[in-house]
Structure formats: structure tokens, C-alpha cells
Design brief:
Elements (H helix, E strand, L loop, with lengths): L2 H21 L3 H14 L4 H13 L3 H14 L4 H12 L8 H12 L10 H19 L1 H11 L5 H8 L2 H9 L5 H17 L8 H14 L8 H15 L7 H12 L10 H7 L7 H20 L12 H9 L16 H8 L13 E6 L5 H9 L3 E7 L2 H14 L4 E5 L12 E7 L8 H10 L1 E12 L5 H12 L6 H12 L20 H8 L9 H10 L2 E6 L4 H10 L9 H10 L7 E8 L6
Parallel strand pairs: 1-2, 1-4, 2-3, 4-5
Antiparallel strand pairs: 5-7, 6-7
Helix pairs in contact: 1-2, 1-3, 2-3, 3-4, 4-5, 5-7, 8-11, 10-12, 12-14, 12-16, 15-16, 16-20, 25-27
């Protein structure tokens, strides 16, 4: 063995041991080993990544970001370095421009020529913000485009040509919902110029850029602001496209089709079916857009028409149903392929002190009450090999999206049905697991909905709930007050107007914090669910305690997204080592209101059941 290969073997061994020390919380030992590896090989990207992980656990976020940044410099295609940097950058108000990160993004996504289809929505959210911020800085879009966006100005052809030639920008627009204000300013101006003046000679990448912008507008569900002049021009263009057979007239006709798709969904055209049939003969990249904008929505329309209904819909639920028929939510695009395991092994790992005899059954049944567009039930069915999943929701349009994605992903152990939670008590089936995330807080009487779900539990069953937090949604409460004072309804034009007003405000304006709370502000269905929902309830730990006690439920603990929060809680609330005392959680949140997330996710079971 040569000296170089021996050093490499030593480093690989030390990295494995350092990872084990980190998993066990032995930070000093992990740090010492990683320092040894880096003294041996300062250009070891994996060692920099692991050192970043140690620094994160220690709460030294900026130093951790520097370690991940260093790893990305050494190995631009290092996925862990980029994803971890993106996760930490996501919570930063400003993300510094970095040629290293731009190179890493291009190496990981553009040069690989594939979207990160195996990444989770959380990872996609982090990458989206990082990529958008870096691209915005590369072209100085916020500085250059805010004033014309706000004041109705124009955009230079030279900037359009430069943006069209940026392969990373085209990739970003085609695969993520944009969360960069500067990119939205620029794209809105470009769209307006092309509609009102016609596309100019902006270079050889214009058609590819137009298609990526069309994919972006379709993905954000046409959230960008449009003037009355644009609205009138789009109506004229729509009449023209509605009469087009889908063939003939070459590139100019395809450009007109895509131009219309920057403002309106093509599946809403009266000739959508014939255009979808003709799209197979269209050139790339128009064909790619047609698959997303025509073929998939038309397939969902057929699924929706055949969707079985298993309960009647109550009159009190109609307003919520109508909202989600118009704006299915969430419009998820990224799916992480889970490592397969049994739910039995998961439950024994997370609830070791519970006695759950049903875990021995070969097949368990899980109900997702309020399945939306299917992301949650598909994740369960994909991850747990011993689960059969029933996914119900008020909205057929949402369920149709989920069923199409399940077929696309090859996930078979999930069935989609239309139902109202208030009438699920009539089902003749009981479930070992019931999950309802982000649903009960939209009901007129959440306790009544919870009562039904508790009644559907098999003996010893587990219940997973997600409910809005009062403290974690403070900015939402303030925004809803501003919306009410402005007299805005929840129509698409009014939501676009609200977004425009927020985006025109200076950085110091309090409502600009909405841009940092997640991606929902940048997508129309997300915005409606986020700020314009017809009804919502919010909770504190003491309220959760009252709600669960009223239904005879035992709280089993929150799902925590940050390890540091767990360590701090255990240090400050030593009397609750199981972290299941909601009175203690009330005290903790009172002391640390900024650590409270917008949605509580937690597990519970019937009191008196499952005890060893």
C-alpha cells in the first residue's frame, strides 16, 4: 500500500468513527478526529461536511455554513454540502452572493441535466431559496427591476438576452417555484413587454427561456401581478389560441401559445384536448411544458370525474371544499424516495414504552383525514411496507392530483376517496393509525372533527395531528388584519394585488417578513391557504391540553425539527424527561416564543391504552 492510499484509508476510517461519535453526541471526540483528518488532508470535502454538522449541533451556524461552503468549493457536486448549506441559508434574511455556491448549484443540477426528483419538499424549499438568491445577485435584479416593477416601467432587451442565456436560471424557473423577489420583478416585466410589444430578437435562447417562464407561471398558479392593460391583451390572445389547431405557423405560433401560458392555464382553453393531442409533434422545450400544462391537468380532470365519494359533504364544509377545488393545496412537485421499513419497526423505535399488540399484524390500516393533494398519504405508503392507506378529502381536484402522482411514482398501497370528516363515523372500518395534518384547525368545530377521528381508531391505535400554533403564526395574524382592513377578498385578482403591494414595500416594512416564512407566499394556492383561508383556529400548548383532555387522549410528544430545541427543553424542563407535559411546554414557549413553529405536529393515543 502506498503512503497516499494509506493516508486515504486512515481518513476514511477516522471519518466513520467521527460520524459514530457525532451520532452519540460525543462532540469533543468527533471534533478531534475530524481535525486529524483535515490536518492530514485539508481538501477532504467529507471532513468539512462532518465538521459543519458538529458545529451545527454546537449552535455555531455561521461557522457550520463556512464548513459546508468549503466542502462545496472543493467538490462542487457534493450534494450533502450543498443541501446543508441551503438549509441553514434558508433561515437567513440575506444570503451572501457566492461564486462557489453558484458553481456547486450548476454542477449539481444543470450539468447533471436532471431535476432532483428524489429530494424532499423541505430540501426543494431550501434549494429554491438559495438558488433564487444567488441568481438574483448574479444579475443584480432587485436593484435593477424594483422601480420599474413598482412604477410600471420597462426592461432592456440586453437584460432579457442575458437572462435567457443563463442555463441555471432556466433550470430554476422550470423546476422550482420562484421565491426571489428580484427574479419576480424581472420576469413580470419581461412577460408584460412580450405580451404588449411582442417578443423581440433577444437571442437564440428565447424559446427555451419562454418555455421555462411558462413552467414557472404554471407552477406558481399565476400568482404574479398583471395590469388591466395586460388582462385585456390576454383576452384577445386567448381568443386567438382557442382557434389554433395546434399545428402550422411554426415557431411564432408556439411562442404565442407559450405567451398565453404565461398568464392563463392552457388546460382551461376550449381546445385544450386537441392541443394536447397535437403537442406530441411540438419541438422541445414546448413539448415539456405541454406535458405539465396540458397532459397532466387533463389526466387529473378524468380522474376527478371518476373519484368515488364515500360520505355526503356537510353544508358547513362547503366553503372549505370550494376553496380547495379552486386551489388544490399543496401543489407539491418533489418526492423523496424513502428507505422502506415496516410501520411496526418505526413505532417500536419512537414509542418503545407503548404496548401495541396490533403491530404484530401483517397489514395495518392508516387513514389520512384531509389528504389534500396526496403528498402525505403517498409518503406513508411509499415508506411503510406493511401499511394500506386510505386518503380522504373534501376536494376531488386535490385528490385527483394525488392519485395521478401516486400512479406516476408507482405507489400502489394508497386509495383516494372524497369524504367529509364529520361523516366518517359511518365508515364500517377502523384504523390502527389515523393522521390529520393541517385540517382540524380549518373546521368550524375542531373538537367535533377530532371526536370523529378518535372514534375511528382501532383499540390501541395511534393518532398523528397537525394544528396551527398561535405564537408561530404571529406574522400571519398581522397580515390577515391588514387584508381585512384593506377589504380584500380571496379572489385571484385580489390576492395578486395584495402580493404586489407587499413586494413594493421597503425591506423594513413588517409585512415583508411574510417572504421569509416559507414558499406559500409565492404560489397562489399556498397564499390562499396561508393568508386568505375562509377559516382557521390557532393553539397554544395549554389549548392543546384542553382539546386532547376533552377527547380522552394522551399526548405522546411533538415532532421537533431542530435538535437544539430538544436539548434546550430538557435543560430548562428537567421535570419532563419524556417531553410529554403540555404545561411544561407552555412554560417553555412563553420563555422562547421565537422558537415556536407555525404548525404543531404531534402524536397521541387514547388515555389508558398502550401502557405497559
Amino acid at each position: 500500500m502506498t503512503a497516499g492510499s494509506r493516508r486515504g484509508a486512515d481518513s476514511a476510517r477516522d471519518l466513520r468513527v467521527a460520524r459514530r461519535h457525532l451520532e452519540k453526541g460525543r462532540l469533543e471526540k468527533a471534533t478531534a478526529l475530524l481535525q486529524t483528518v483535515l490536518s492530514r488532508d485539508p481538501e477532504c470535502a467529507d471532513a468539512h461536511v462532518e465538521m459543519g454538522a458538529v458545529l451545527e449541533v454546537r449552535g455555531r451556524r455561521l461557522e457550520a455554513m463556512r464548513s459546508y461552503h468549503q466542502a462545496a468549493r472543493i467538490e462542487p457536486g457534493h450534494a450533502a454540502a450543498l443541501l446543508r448549506f441551503a438549509r441553514l441559508a434558508y433561515t437567513s434574511r440575506e444570503i451572501e452572493p457566492s461564486e462557489v455556491i453558484l458553481a456547486a448549484l450548476e454542477a449539481s443540477f444543470v450539468d447533471a441535466e436532471r431535476p432532483p426528483l428524489d429530494s424532499s419538499e423541505a430540501q426543494a424549499r431550501d434549494v429554491s431559496r438559495l438558488m433564487g438568491a444567488q441568481l438574483e445577485a448574479r444579475h443584480d435584479l432587485r436593484t435593477r427591476c424594483l422601480a420599474p416593477y413598482r412604477d410600471g416601467g420597462g426592461v432592456e432587451a440586453a437584460l432579457i438576452e442575458r437572462l435567457a442565456a443563463d442555463r441555471l436560471l432556466r433550470f430554476y424557473l422550470a423546476h422550482y417555484v420562484n421565491v426571489s423577489t428580484g427574479i419576480e420583478y424581472a420576469a413580470t416585466l419581461i412577460r408584460r413587454r412580450w405580451l404588449l410589444e411582442g417578443p423581440g430578437p433577444e437571442g437564440p435562447d428565447r424559446l427555451a427561456f419562454l418555455a421555462s417562464l411558462a413552467l414557472q407561471c404554471f407552477a406558481n398558479q399565476y400568482a404574479w401581478f398583471e395590469t388591466s392593460e395586460e388582462t385585456a391583451a390576454v383576452e384577445i390572445l386567448e381568443n386567438e389560441i382557442a382557434a389554433w389547431p395546434g399545428e402550422g405557423d411554426g415557431v411564432p405560433a408556439l411562442e404565442r401559445f407559450l405567451l398565453h401560458a404565461l398568464y392563463r392555464p392552457p388546460a382551461g382553453l376550449p381546445n385544450a384536448t386537441s392541443l394536447g393531442a397535437a403537442a406530441d409533434g411540438w419541438p422541445e422545450p414546448v413539448r415539456t411544458f405541454a406535458r405539465a400544462g396540458l397532459a397532466e391537468p387533463l389526466a387529473e380532470r378524468a380522474i376527478e370525474a371518476a373519484m368515488p365519494r364515500v360520505t355526503p359533504i356537510e353544508a358547513d364544509s362547503e366553503a372549505v371544499r370550494e376553496q380547495y377545488e379552486a386551489n388544490p393545496y399543496p401543489a407539491w412537485r418533489h418526492h423523496r424516495a424513502h428507505r422502506r421499513e415496516s410501520f411496526a419497526s418505526f413505532a417500536r423505535r419512537h414509542f418503545p414504552k407503548l404496548r401495541l399488540p396490533w403491530l404484530a399484524k401483517a397489514r395495518k390500516h392508516l387513514l389520512v383525514a384531509g389528504a389534500g393533494t396526496g403528498r402525505e398519504p403517498i409518503a406513508y405508503a411509499d415508506r411503510f411496507a406493511d401499511l394500506d392507506v386510505l386518503a380522504v378529502d373534501l376536494s376531488r381536484a386535490s385528490l385527483a392530483y394525488g392519485e395521478r402522482r401516486a400512479v406516476e411514482l408507482g405507489v400502489e398501497a394508497v386509495a383516494f376517496r372524497q369524504a367529509d370528516i364529520l361523516n366518517l363515523a359511518d365508515l364500517d372500518q377502523r384504523f390502527e393509525v389515523v393522521a390529520s395534518q393541517g385540517v382540524l384547525h380549518h373546521m368550524g368545530d375542531p373538537a367535533a372533527g377530532l371526536r370523529v377521528l378518535v372514534g375511528l381508531l382501532a383499540p390501541g391505535g395511534l393518532l398523528r395531528l397537525g394544528l396551527y400554533s398561535e405564537r408561530g403564526r404571529d406574522i400571519v395574524v398581522r397580515a390577515r388584519v391588514a387584508i381585512a382592513e384593506a377589504g380584500l377578498g380571496s379572489g385571484a385578482d385580489e390576492m395578486r394585488r395584495f402580493r404586489f403591494e407587499v413586494l413594493c414595500q421597503p425591506e423594513s416594512h413588517p409585512l415583508r417578513d411574510l417572504l421569509l416564512t416559507g414558499n406559500d407566499f409565492f404560489c397562489l394556492s399556498g397564499l390562499r391557504d396561508f393568508l386568505f383561508h375562509v377559516r382557521e383556529h390557532r393553539y397554544r400548548p395549554r389549548d392543546l391540553k384542553a382539546l386532547l383532555d376533552g377527547q380522552g387522549l394522551r399526548f405522546l410528544g411533538f415532532e421537533l425539527s431542530h435538535a437544539g430545541k430538544r436539548a434546550l427543553y430538557l435543560r430548562e424542563q428537567p421535570g419532563d424527561p419524556e417531553m410529554c407535559d403540555l404545561d411544561a411546554w407552555e412554560r417553555f414557549e412563553t420563555a422562547h416564543p421565537k422558537m415556536v413553529e407555525g404548525l404543531y405536529r404531534f402524536w397521541c393515543c387514547k388515555a389508558g391504552e398502550g401502557s405497559r
